[in-house]
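Sorry to interrupt, but I need a hand with the structure work. I would like you to pick a protein and set down its sequence and fold. Please put the record directly below this note.
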Amino acid sequence: MKKVSLVIIFALALAVGAASAQTSTDLGTWSSIQLVKTFGAPYAMARLEHRSCDNAGSTECWFAMAGGGYNFNKWLKGDLSYEYWQIPAAGDMIQHKAVFCLTETLRRDGLSIALREKYELAYNPDADSFSNTLRTRLRGQYKSEDSIFTPYLMYEFFSSFDTSKWVRSLHYAGTEVNLGGGHSLDIFYMYHIYDKGGLTAACHLIGLGYTLVF
């Protein structure tokens, strides 16, 4: 019953978010490669991601990330990272980001619920300006011992510390695929809702990620 209730809550979040969007015409893709090296409780990580827009015909942005973190216990971890962004869709704007995350995960009988709080401090060298963003993400997923698939639903909300306003929200439905030996894929559909000149806009996204943990 609890598992059914969780699915209903996430489905309602997806539906409410979709209903609030005024436009939904674009289709894009997000693709990524991520490496995670564990050293017991500490870990190091690196990621390269590309995002397309204009019906997957143009590059919206790409970024590279490097960082490290620590598993404090079975349910809490934190990490720090640096991200370099290039955004052709915004006139080849460059951004440097310092990112801090805390993730709390509760697990029971194959079901896990994770709450992540992410703070981003972004610097734009062309404008010589800083921006501060808080991202709150809720993720629920279910793992069966006899399956390589781990389906999940996920919702992420962005708010600006500078303007105290909503920036965007991401609504995911996807699955992780365990390929064995630390290799895995992440396949998802996302409905992306964002502010566009004071109006609410949206687009559809298809994502594919590869992760190696070693």
Notes: Confidence is low (pLDDT under 50) at residues 1-9, 15-21. The helical segments are 2-20. The radius of gyration is 18 Å.
